[in-house]
Each structure stands twice: as structure tokens, then as C-alpha cells.
Amino acid sequence: MRRQRHQKKMMKYMRYVFNDHFVLVCLFLVGGLAFYYSNLLKGLPTDFVWGLPIVGIIWWVLLPFGRLATLVEPADMTFLLPKEKAMGSYLSQGVRHSIGIPFFIELLVCGALLPLVVLTKQVSFATFFLYLAMLWSLKFANLRVQRFACFQNTKNATAYLMLGWFLLSGVVIWISLYLGAVFGTILGLVIASIFYVLTKEKGRLLDWSKMIERENARLHRIYQFINLFTDVPEIEAKVRRRKYLDGLLARITFKQENTYLYLFARGALRGAEFGGLFFRLLIVGGVLLVSLNDFRFIVGVSLLFIYLIGFQMIPLYGQFDYIGATQLYPVAIKYKRAALQKLMGILLIATAFIFALCSLFQVSIGQSLLLFVVLLVEIGLFSWLYLPKRIKKMEE
């Protein structure tokens, strides 16, 4: 029942995360990366010695992804204490419930990296299933260690088990890639069996406080991601001073038509939700542009991040509707719409300028100027054609 309630809540949030625009952007990004990756593989020699180390490191780093979902709540410490002996089977169900997403991620990554393994080692594509079974076995052992950590007096043992699992996983991945996928798969299954035995609770009592704390931390990370797309009641918004930005706010003159412009600017620059989102996307986009050397791909990534920043900032329009001052001192709706358009234009133009500067690390000045012009066209279309339609839809 609790799991169904949790899944229902997550599905409700996923409708806002995987909206039409985000899915379209993801398809564009995945398509671009696939095209870039395909061209990269075609240009690599058959004796590319770094292929297997790259695949092995990615697999090794990917394995810890995915936490044990126990779905325990603070009240359980009191009300479920009489049922503590039955919690062992409940945690085992939690392991099975937590396996799905990590297994799916490993499936995608393993499938994406297999062409690089085939190119480097000249193996058949049938080895994909052996590699996948090896990764799944190692991940199951990791979740068993996380389950073991839910019991009392297991802190030191859990640390040693986790360290041993991580080192053994690296060895098994190395054996799979260099000595043979069959050997790696067999070792993976053996390690999963050994850790299954080592992580049995053997009459231990649950550490309720630690278990609840870890589950709250896991859910908080999920809600932080969802909060990038929609408001989440479980996340408490924080306001940061950011004194170094006071000069920008001081440039807004105090008059009626600038009321919402000032509020929106404060929300965008100082609010953790929108300000943090803007700066994170700006930094990630800038780092990507510095690392790319294909001008077409630079243009595509720049257009994508300009759209992402603009789209994620649109909910700022209703951010201050709950404030009583905006009701007691009403401002014409046209000023509110114009304020968001103006602020969006300023932020996106500043972003385009920074992206153009970042592109100078890889392309010529002329190409960088062309990129800036292309981004200005996109900003104009977004701010004066797309944004008014979105605002009108929000007001309905």
C-alpha cells in the first residue's frame, strides 16, 4: 500500500518532469550525442588501446548509482516496532523494488558502450548479455550491503563490505573486458552469492534512526531534481543574500510599471529555485561548449541550453501571486507580462553572450559572432512569440 502511494506520487510528478518540451529536448540531445558518438567510433582505429579502460571506468563509476528504497517514515519507529522481526522480509522486498531503475540505467549504458568494446576487442554483440549479467550481479550485491546497513552495530562491517565490494567490482570488470565476459559473469554471480550470505542480519535489530535518515536523504535528492521542473511541497525554498548582485537590482527604477520586474529579478537572482537553476544550467552549458570542437554541435548545444533556461524560468510568472501586497496594490496585468518578457530577454541575452565567449576556445571569432546572432534570433522567437502564449495559457 505504501509503495503504491509512493509510486502514484512519483507518477504525478513525472507528468511535469517529462512534459512535451522536455521530451523533445531530450530527443534532440540524445540524437545529437548519438550522431557525435557514431562519427567518433568511425574515426577510431581498431587498435585503440584506451577503449576498454574508458568502458571499464564508466561501468565501475556507474555501479554505485541507485539507493535502497525502504519508504520508512519517522512514525514507523514507534508504530512498527512490534513488527520488527517481520522487517527483514520487508527490506528484501525493498531490494527487489530498488533494482529496477539501476538495472535499466546499466542496460542503456552497457548497450551504448558495447560498440566501443566490439571495435577495440573484436568480440560479438552476443557478449552484451554476459556483460549485463555481470553488472546486474554486482549491483545486487551492492543493494544487499545497503540492506545490511539498516541494522544495528553494522557501521564498521558495512564500511568494510562496501569497500571490498567496490574493489572486487573493479577487478571483475577488468577480468570481463580483458580475459573474457564468461569469466567475469561467473565471478559476478559468485560475488553476489557471497555477499548475500555475508549480509544476512542474523538476529540483529534494526537501526530505525539511521534507516529513516537515509530514506529521507534519498527522497530529498529525488525531490530536488523534480523541483527543477515544478513546485514540490517537500522542498523548502531558501533565499540567499548574494550581495554581489545588488548592483543589478539597484538599476531597476522604483515606479509602478517596474513592480513585477523588481520582484521577478529578485526571485531569479536570489531565490534558490530559479537562481540556482539558472546558474547551474549556465555553468553546465559553458563547460560543454568549452569541451566541444564541432561548430554545428556547439550551435545545437547552445540553442538547447538557451531553450532550457528560458523554459525552466517561465514558472517565475506566478511566483508572487500568493503575496498579499500584489493584491492590495494591484498592478496592471500588461506590466506583469512585460516584466517577465524583459527579464527573460536580459537573462537569455547575457547567457548567449557568455556562450559565445566560451565557444572562442574552440572556434574562430567569426563563428562565435555567428553563434551569438543565431542565439539572438532564438531569444527573440522565444520571448516575443512562445512566451506570450505560455503566459496566456497559465492565466486561463
UniProtKB/TrEMBL annotation:
Stretches that traverse the bilayer: 21-38, 50-69, 99-119, 125-145, 157-175, 181-199, 274-292, 298-318, 343-363, 369-387
InterPro entries given in the database record: EcsB_ABC
The entry's keywords: Membrane, Transmembrane, Transmembrane helix
A GO CC annotation given for this chain: membrane
Protein name stated in the entry: Multidrug ABC transporter permease
